[in-house]
Amino acid sequence: MQKDSHNKFKNRIEAGVLLANQLSSYIGLPDLLVLGLPRGGVPVAYEVAKKLKAPLDVALVRKLGVPGHKELAMGAIASGGVKILNHDVISSLRISQKTIDEVTSRELQELARREKLFRGNHLGGAIIKDHTVILIDGGIATGSTMRAAITIIKAQRPAKLILAVPVGPTSLWREFGSTVDEIVCLKNPKDLYAIGLWYEDFSQTSEQEVCAILEQANATSLGTTIGKPEG
User: Fold this and answer.
1) Which of 35, 97, 159, 207 is the right S-S partner for 59, CB 3.0 to 4.6 Å?
2) Is 176 helix (H, G, I), strand (E, B) or coil?
């Protein structure tokens, strides 16, 4: 979906409201889940979850970056012990098992820290299997973290996966069209350069802000599936 590419979003909140309007056909859908990529994707995702009356959770994913080339992912990990390796990258670069283990160990520590911070006692997050999942970030530039998130989420077998962002490159459909069921993108400029250029206010979202948003979502019963055991 492509909209006007010239006007900037005022901030992430406005971007989320506008994105929610484009996703309004999902309002009230059973087993709907909205996931925001921390940190900047969470304020956008909150507005979508609020509009759609859906649970909100964070997509806690850590990319396993190749040492010296961190934008290149050799795999990814997520909560619940989910781990995906990109064997093509590993074999072509001849990455040793020791390197994989070292990077994985470091990223597991950061994942555990973020999970405890963002979820508190609700470790494990929302159930993804058989749910319709809307995965949101504030925008996509290189797409490396989003690719990792999609890989991890698909491994947990959602019924449907929708990628939704306020702004992304013209290559968005080519890069992600075969890996998700639907893509919603409000601005699709030919010359993207940097996501921040498409916002009047693109100030960094703090971890404290993410925590506050998740608490608000739970207080308004948006996060009711978080922490429920499967089955």
Assistant:
1) 35
2) helix
Other C-beta atoms closer than 10 Å to the C-beta of 150 total 21
Distances (CA, A) of 224 to 56, 125, 219: 8, 11, 10
Tokens of 71: 């934008």
Digit-coded pLDDT (tens) for 167-224 = 999 999 999 999 999 999 999 998 888 899 999 999 999 999 999 999 999 887 665 4
Specify the CATH number of the domain 12-60+123-219. 3.40.50.2020
Separation between Cα atoms, residue 67 and residue 73, nearest integer Å: 10
Q: Which of 100-114, 122-136, 184-198 shows the lowest per-residue confidence on average (mean pLDDT)? A: 122-136
Q: Are the beta carbons of 29 and 53 closer than 8 angstroms? A: no
User: What single letter denotes the amino acid at residue 136?
Assistant: I
In the chain, where are the structural domains located? 12-60+123-219, 63-119
Phi, psi of 167 (to 5 degrees): -145, 140
Whether this prediction's pTM lies above 0.90 is answered by no
Please state, in angstroms and rounded to a whole number, the distance separating the CA atoms of residues 44 and 35.
10
Buried b (16+ CB within 10 A) or exposed e, 2-17: eeeeeebbebbebbbb
